[in-house]
Amino acid sequence: MNITVKKLAELHKPTHNIRRHSDKQITEYIRSIEMFGQVKPLVVAEDGEIIAGNGLYEALLRMGRETCDCYVMVGLTDVQKKKLMMADNKVYELGFTDVDAIEELVKELDGDVDVPGWDADLLEMLNSTTDEADEVIGSYGDFPENEIAPINRHQAEEHVPYAETPTYSVAPAPQPAPTVSAAPQQPSPVLEMSTPSEPQTAAPEADSGVEQHRCIRCPKCGELICL
Fold first, then answer.
1. Minimal CA–CA distance to 33: which of 58, 67, 64, 56?
2. Do 36 and 103 share a domain, yes or no?
3. Which of 58, 47, 44 lies closest to 5 in space, CA to CA?
4. pLDDT tens, residue by residue, 75-120
5. What band does 192 get if pLDDT is binned at 50, 70 and 90?
6. Digit-coded pLDDT (tens) for 211-223
7. Which of 3, 33, 125, 160 is the most exposed place for a label (fewest CB within 10 A)?
8. Which domain, by its residues, includes 113?
């Protein structure tokens, strides 16, 4: 593996980084770098895209570093780069912590439990005897008398009594509306329909012997014209 020193300004994160890094993790990265130096190179593509080591990259930036050790992978396709990113993050999660091995390692630290990423109190607990561990566990939750009094006084000062339970007037239950008896309905009058009779032909007027004439008035001159 050829390690190359590259400027941090030439590197960039991938568009989709599936691993999120908390401030606590970045802080522990910084502690590790200050204690041991950069022991793992960043894995980057030819164009400077970071494939593995984004958390370490953020820690180096916060420390004000300008360069870092990198392993440049050549000839990867976009699909291969994405698959390598996913594999690098997931394969690590498939392992588990061997507590027995940690206990043995802690005993060999000679009491120096300042290890980046680990809680010092937990490591001290693993390095203690059974009696010492029971004493520490039994002391959890205990407060000295000189600390209990100020806590009780502070709680009493902040105590606010509950307000009296408010009373609300209860509206009377709605009464059912009185039932009004409907007036008896009168039967509808039956209309008698008469069947039309045969039309009667008017009798012709009797001839009076006088000659009848029809007269009209001219609309232009107004002269009466008898036909």
1. 56
2. no
3. 44
4. 999 999 999 999 999 998 899 989 899 999 999 998 899 999 999 9
5. very low
6. 555 666 766 666 6
7. 160
8. 96-137
Domain total in the chain: 2
Q: What is the DSSP string of 56-90?
A: HHHHHHHTT--EEEEEEE-S--HHHHHHHHHHHHH
pTM confidence score: 0.56
Smallest CA-to-CA distance from 227 within 212, 206, 217, 213 is with 213
User: What are the tens digits of pLDDT across the range 45-55?
Assistant: 999 999 999 99
Last residue of a domain, which of 75, 95, 115? 95
26 and 88 housed in the same domain: yes
**Exposed/middle/buried for residue 205 (C-beta within 10 Å: 0-12, 13-18, 19+):** exposed
Beta carbons of 84 and 50 less than 8 angstroms apart = no
Return the number of other C-beta atoms located less than 10 Å from residue 58's C-beta. 17
